[in-house]
Design brief:
Helix content: 25-40%
CATH topology of the largest domain: Transferase(Phosphotransferase), domain 1
CATH architecture of the largest domain: Orthogonal Bundle
Length: 318
């Protein structure tokens, strides 16, 4: 049974309840609560999408004449302090990052029984959608996307944040080719205050793109796990598939930990040798065998921006 939090007294109650059994307050839908929380300066336009942890709404900022995407944690998850803190940390981590290849946080708040934060609304498609449509990408486009993702990750790493879930659905390709990294929902701080929110042995991330150390549930995770995932994404863009594509999650996790990934040229023979070798090194099982930092890997791969400016993007007029 789903649970929600009464916005008046904070009690937990059934998601289908119309009234709070403790204080008698009338319960509203998430969209109604969000309208109330945002106030008169914002117009809620509709839902953009939803996942297991949150729903994203399209919102117009009437005061500043701009469009935002507001990510709201599912109210029933507020029963878990760990999940709530992860959501808060996502907002905090991204708010401290200021880079053209990372989707920024405009503001965050906890109002009307909701925990949410706002981001600029952008026009484009997730890389996963491009891959579903085309199978694999042209070499120039692959290099451009890898370059921009690397720059965003390098900035995050320099500020003590690792993403831990780099995959095509978390990479937005805007109209014009500008790339943004999305969803720091499972990010972890590298500093000593660094988010011990997941117990050792808990696997966090996406199996097809996670490093060997993530697949094993290790608590010893650093920036090199993002380098691994970056290499897997590069492999997928070139080959049209991830290195390990078994149907079962456990089988994929086992291969991530134990099986040497194939050479991307087995699936894309025209891949330049230097790019293939760089991607293969990124996917080394032992983190010590990977590149020292993501910018080194991008440089070694020959990633260069081809007519793509990291500071130029098409404004969302919708």
């Amino acid at each position: 049974m789903s649970m929600v939090v009464c916005e008046e007294c904070g009690s937990f109650l059934s998601g289908s309840a119309r009234f709070c059994a403790k204080c008698g307050a009338t319960q509203q839908s998430v969209s109604q609560r969000l309208r109330k929380a945002l106030g008169a300066d914002y117009e809620l336009l509709g839902e953009l999408g939803r996942g297991g942890a949150a729903v994203v709404y399209s919102v117009r900022d009437l005061k500043h004449h701009r469009y935002l995407a507001v990510k709201v944690m599912h109210p029933e998850l507020m029963a878990s302090p760990v999940v709530v803190e992860r959501f808060r940390r996502e907002a905090r981590y991204v708010a401290q990052l200021d880079h053209p290849n990372i989707l920024s946080v405009t503001f965050s708040a906890e109002e009307s029984g909701l925990v949410f934060y706002a981001m600029p609304r952008v026009r484009g498609k997730a890389l996963s959608k491009h891959l579903e449509k085309r199978g694999h990408l042209a070499l120039d486009k692959t290099l451009s996307i890898l370059s921009q993702v690397a720059e965003g990750l390098y900035h995050a790493h320099q500020h003590g944040v690792i993403h831990r879930d780099i995959k095509p659905s978390n990479i937005m390709v805007e109209d014009g080719g500008h790339v943004l990294i999305l969803d720091f929902g499972v990010a972890k701080a590298l500093s000593s205050d660094g988010g011990h929110l997941s117990a050792s042995g808990e696997i966090i991330g996406s199996p097809r793109y996670m490093s060997a150390e993530q697949a094993s549930g290790s608590s010893n995770i650093d920036h090199r796990t993002d380098i691994y995932s970056w290499g897997v994404v590069g492999f997928h863009m070139l080959a049209g598939r991830a290195p390990f594509v078994d149907q079962g999650v456990q089988a994929i996790l086992y291969k991530q930990m134990t099986v040497e990934p194939p050479d991307v040229r087995e699936f894309r023979p025209d891949t330049p040798e230097v790019l293939a070798n760089t991607i293969h090194r990124c996917m080394a099982k032992n983190p010590a065998r990977r590149w020292g930092n993501i910018r080194e890997a991008a440089k070694a791969a020959g990633c260069v921006r081809r007519g793509v400016s990291s500071s130029s993007r098409a404004p969302d007029k919708r």
